[in-house]
Amino acid sequence: MFMADVRKLTNEESRHLLSVLKVRFESHMYRHEDMEWRDVEARLDSHPEKLWSLGEMERTGGEPDVAAEADGTIIFYDFSAESPEGRRKVCYDDEALQARKKNKPENSAVGMAEEMGVELLDEADYRQLQTIEVVDRKTSSWIRTPADIRKRGGALFGDHRYGAMFIYHNGAESYYSARGFRAMLLI
Questions:
Q1: Of 62, 78, 94, which marks where a domain is finished?
Q2: What backbone phi and psi angles, to 5 degrees, belong to 66?
Q3: 1 lies in a domain?
Q4: Residue 5 has pLDDT above 90, yes or no
Q5: Which InterPro entries match (predicted)?
């Protein structure tokens, strides 16, 4: 029996998502000066498998938009004002999820990102995002944590308070209703 690829949008879903992305792109040109939507759309047309991941970013509340183009790669970041609502209440990774004995969250940030086909922002990416647009004034977002910190049981997250961006640490097993994760997609 043939099964449909669940990681592919229908033509109607693709058209709708491209329309949403185009409006957002054109409404926030300061995020990607000197770029044209037709170039972004052409890149998406040549990598249709990435459109599903963008759809997941949108579906979970990330409000993805183009952040930059570097070395011929178009970079999408989550630009939602707060950590995407559909990606909150998660611990850092699957190791932390398995180690948690009581009150387990449903998923982990790293696990969800893998399922979505996207990457967690690292500290440099998160700092870059905050220079484009201030986010996480009421929430916080897990960020990709260096292996040496993770090996010791910790994980990093960022937010923006008191007019400044902060990077903090917490146990990887922790999770909060106002902490999710931000993603990026390279095309």
A1: 78
A2: -70, 130
A3: no
A4: no
A5: DUF4256 (IPR025352)
